């Protein structure tokens, strides 16, 4: 088991907030419940190596693409999975802030879902669980889809049925299941016992994404 979490803000404040205050709070809560949590950022022992993200936007096919600079936002180039495995083998629960380090020591904020997918792939994890504040993927009638495969998910993104903040979550889920992860679950962490209900009931309470 490992935890990743996200927040937004200016770079220096973000690194301090994610790597210190939020990290220590999550670690303390896990430890109070009898777990053995240890707090990390992607900068510790080169846990998350990253590069600057470049965003290309094109209004239409006749217009040249526009390059958008998102600032100190990065994307993962490598995960030091040996560090995670070493901690897990000793019974620790890594709590990872999604802050990566560039080749020259630059600090990059990275989307937590993207980091989670990359970590799951690097570990060849059987399951990846994305905990959010909505029930999961909804259909056109706003009803929860309990299970969805990659073909249907991509079609729903293309037609606009999946939109907003759910798009990066679903795309990260599809990326994970396309390589090594068997299933990805998107669940509402605000629901009591959501993790247990998703994994140990027939229908679950969120959306299961499969290849």
Chain-wise SSE layout:
Layout: E1 3-4, H1 11-32, E2 37-41, E3 48-52, E4 55-57, E5 66-68, E6 74-79, H2 81-89, E7 93-97, E8 99-101, E9 107-109, H3 112-123, E10 127-132, E11 147-149, H4 150-159, H5 166-177, E12 183-188, H6 194-200, E13 207-210
Parallel strand pairs: 1-7, 2-7, 10-12, 11-13
Antiparallel strand pairs: 3-6, 4-5, 8-9, 12-13
If strands are numbered along the chain, what order do they take across the biggest sheet? 10-12-13-11
Bin the strand percentage: 25-35%
Radius of gyration: 18 Å
The shape is globular
Low-confidence stretches: 7-13
Number of helix segments?
6
Helix content: 25-40%
Secondary structural class: alpha/beta
Major sheet description: 4 strands, mixed
State the end-to-end distance: 22 Å
Average pLDDT number? 87
User: What's the total count of β strands?
Assistant: 13
- Could you state the oligomeric state of the chains shown? single chain
SSE succession: EHEEEEEHEEEHEEHHEHE
């Amino acid at each position: 088991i490992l935890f990743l979490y996200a927040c937004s803000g200016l770079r220096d404040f973000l690194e301090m907030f994610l790597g210190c205050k939020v990290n220590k709070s999550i670690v303390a809560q896990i430890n109070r419940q009898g777990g053995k949590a240890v707090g990390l950022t992607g900068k510790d022992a080169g846990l998350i190596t990253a590069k600057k993200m470049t965003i290309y936007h094109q209004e239409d096919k006749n217009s040249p693409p526009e390059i958008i600079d998102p600032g100190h936002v990065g994307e993962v180039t490598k995960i030091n999975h040996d560090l995670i495995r070493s901690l897990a083998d000793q019974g620790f629960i890594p709590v990872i802030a999604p802050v990566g380090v560039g080749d020259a020591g630059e600090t990059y904020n990275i989307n937590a879902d993207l980091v989670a997918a990359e970590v799951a792939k690097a570990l060849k994890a059987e399951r990846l669980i994305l905990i959010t504040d909505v029930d999961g993927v909804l259909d056109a009638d706003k009803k929860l889809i309990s299970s969805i495969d990659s073909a249907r998910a991509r079609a729903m993104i293309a037609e606009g049925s999946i939109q907003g903040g759910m798009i990066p979550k679903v795309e990260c889920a599809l990326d994970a299941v396309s390589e090594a992860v068997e299933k990805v679950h998107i669940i509402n962490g605000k629901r009591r016992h959501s993790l247990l209900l998703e994994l140990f009931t027939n229908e679950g309470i969120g959306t299961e994404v499969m290849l």
